[in-house]
Amino acid sequence: MPDRQLLGSHSKGGFVSLPDSFFAHVIPKIQELAELKLVLYLAYIILRKRCPGRQRSECSVTHKELKDEICRLSAGLDEETLRHAVDLAAEHGILLRSTTNINGVVEDIYSLAIDSAQPITINIFALYEQNIGIITPMIAEELKEAENLYPPQWIEEAFREAVRLNKRSWKYIARILERWASEGKDSGEYKRDIKKDDPDKYIKGKYGHLVRR
After folding, report:
1. Same-domain pairing of 101 and 159
2. How far is CA 119 from CA 16, 28, 122, in A?
């Protein structure tokens, strides 16, 4: 069944509707209750907005608008929890985040990527071949494992980071992913370690047997 359009209903009951893909591809990505609340409230606000010349799904919401509406509806999301939920939704490709200047104040603005909500996929094998080289059977097993363990965006960004630093080895990329998983992707720890200029920082650990120097 094709996706229904992202439209708000003006019926007396105050219903809003979401595309089929929202339930097929967005909901399964959500991991925490706070993230679910955020996404649903953001959709609710967007569906009720008037955005001249734009589809409702293209409307954006400022952080203040979102926070005020959540407070009005007594959603139980404090500022710290709300920011955490925003980070999760952005990481999962559900929420699009940018900034704008409103009367001299920089404000976060959000929109939902649910009009074309399809599973976010990458070809990890193609990434490896394009950026590192020939895939051996052992490497193929490690790539499959990583594909199941980490979000697609993480894998793509880890490859990009390795290429940027001219560290083209799976061992290095795998260590970045492990660090993000254990310490949080946005913790900044791996960047601080890079600055220490330790060439072995990301080639230690369980993938050490896979890649030659």
Report:
1. no
2. 23, 10, 10
Look at the pTM and tell me if it is higher than 0.70: no
Q: Given phi > 0 = left and psi -120 to 50 = alpha, else beta, which region is 205? A: left
Q: Which residue has the tokens 């920089």?
A: 106
Same domain, 128 and 190: yes
- pLDDT, tens only, 151-208: 888 888 899 899 889 999 999 999 999 999 888 776 444 444 444 444 444 344 444 4
Fill in the DSSP letter of residue 105.
E
Domain count, the chain: 2
Which of 112, 140, 158 terminates a domain? The answer is 112
Looking at the fold, whether 103 and 130 belong to one and the same domain comes out as: no
pLDDT for 81-112, tens place per residue? 999 999 999 888 888 888 777 788 888 888 88
Give the domain extent around 68: 20-112
Alpha carbon 103 to its chain centroid, in Å, reads: 29
Query: How many whole angstroms separate alpha carbon 87 and alpha carbon 81?
Result: 10
User: Six-digit token pair at 15?
Assistant: 């219903």
> Is the CB of residue 89 less than 8 Å from the CB of residue 41?
no
Cβ neighbors of 66 (< 8 A, separation 6 or more) are 38, 41, 42, 45, 82, 110
Contacts of 186 (CB under 8 A, 6+ apart): 87
Identify the CATH number of the domain in which residue 151 sits.
Answer: 1.10.10.630
